[in-house]
Amino acid sequence: MITFGDYLLPKSLDEAYSAFISKRSARLIGGGCFLRMGNRKIGLAIDLSQTGIEYINELEEEVEIGGMTSLRDFETSQILKNNFGNIIEDSVKHIIGVQLRNIATIGATVYSRYGFSDPITALLALDADIYLYKGGRISLEEYLKEKDYRKDILEKVIIKKNIQRADFQTIRNSAVDYAILSVGVSRVNGKYRISIGARPRAAILAYEAMEYISNVEVNEDTATKAGELVSEEIHFGTNNRGTCEYRKEISKILVKRALLEVQR
Ligand SMILES: Cc1cc2nc3c(=O)[nH]c(=O)nc-3n(C[C@H](O)[C@H](O)[C@H](O)COP(=O)(O)OP(=O)(O)OC[C@H]3O[C@@H](n4cnc5c(N)ncnc54)[C@H](O)[C@@H]3O)c2cc1C
After folding, report:
1. Would residue 130 be called left, alpha or beta, if left means φ above 0 and alpha means ψ between -120 and 50 degrees?
2. Contact 165, 184 (CB under 8 A)
3. Given the CA of residue 172, which atom of ligand 1 is nearest to it?
4. Could you tell me which residues come within 8 angstroms of residue 49 by beta carbon, excluding any fewer than 6 positions away?
5. Tens of pLDDT along 188-242?
6. For residue 67, which atom of ligand 1 is closest to its CA?
7. Which parts form a coiled-coil structure per UniProt (predicted)?
């Protein structure tokens, strides 16, 4: 069970941030799905639902997704589909069920850098940036490399509209289980980005494979070779969903599939 000492419903991010840094025991509440798992006592719960960061805005060169946007809105947005195809939908449709996706938020998901996160794998492939209320704009790639957590609010995720094609592949033991591995691939001006998530640690880019595949014609042979490069350069681990060796093997297949899908 989760219990709150105090509960605050701020009307702005400024009010939320001031309260957040004023108390060590303060905790932001997005959808609350993860926080409510297990027993937890939160001194000050700061509910972000009234801070005005629930939106998906299409600008001239990028799309902005507010931190309180639900995974379901993220999944079904026509703006995101028109600009990026099915990669966004494919990265969230396996998460439990519509009820949970109606509640869980993209801001909490990205900020928390969960190793199993499917949307992070997709967003990393799409070269997304994040905007932190205090820390400003940084690339997701850099944010994922940071060792410490900043005490900040994830205000929005920003995706540039220059993506030509993108794809998401994953393998799970059952439809709604956590992923054993996830792969995101995108193409911008002939350059490919390959992200590998649920390794089981947080998603990272496969730089050597990206360099290789961006300089050759993509076909069955080169996509196979890129998959092999990924399996060698990425550090995989073992957990109760899959072994390091298994992840290494399936990475070859998922990368090849995603590359062939993206080059079509
Ligand atoms: C049973 C279950 C199964 C799941 N399976 C999957 C899965 O297969 N794949 C997958 O990708 N995800 C999965 N998830 C995770 C889910 O997609 C969300 O990432 C998770 O629920 C967090 O979203 P939330 O809005 O509920 O966060 P909350 O529980 O509200 O918050 C989580 C953390 O983020 C912080 N936080 C909240 N909002 C912000 C913000 N805007 N800025 C900064 N910090 C913030 C909170 O303080 C807290 O520390 C699963 C979740 C559950 C409960």
Report:
1. beta
2. no
3. 8
4. 9, 29, 68
5. 988 999 999 999 999 999 999 999 999 999 999 999 999 999 999 999 999 999 9
6. 41
7. none
Domains in the chain: ranges and CATH: 2-49 (3.30.43), 56-160 (3.30.465.10), 165-263 (3.30.390.50)
CA atoms within 13 A on the CB side of 89: 11
Tell whether ligand 1 has an atom less than 6 A from the beta carbon of residue 66: no
Residues 17-73: tens digit of each pLDDT: 999 999 999 999 999 998 888 888 999 999 999 999 999 999 999 999 999 999 999
Each residue's pLDDT tens digit, 88-128: 999 999 999 999 999 999 999 999 999 999 999 999 999 99
Pocket test for ligand 1, best of 4, 28, 123, 131 (most atoms within 8 A of CB): 28
For 125, phi then psi, to 5°, come to: -65, -35
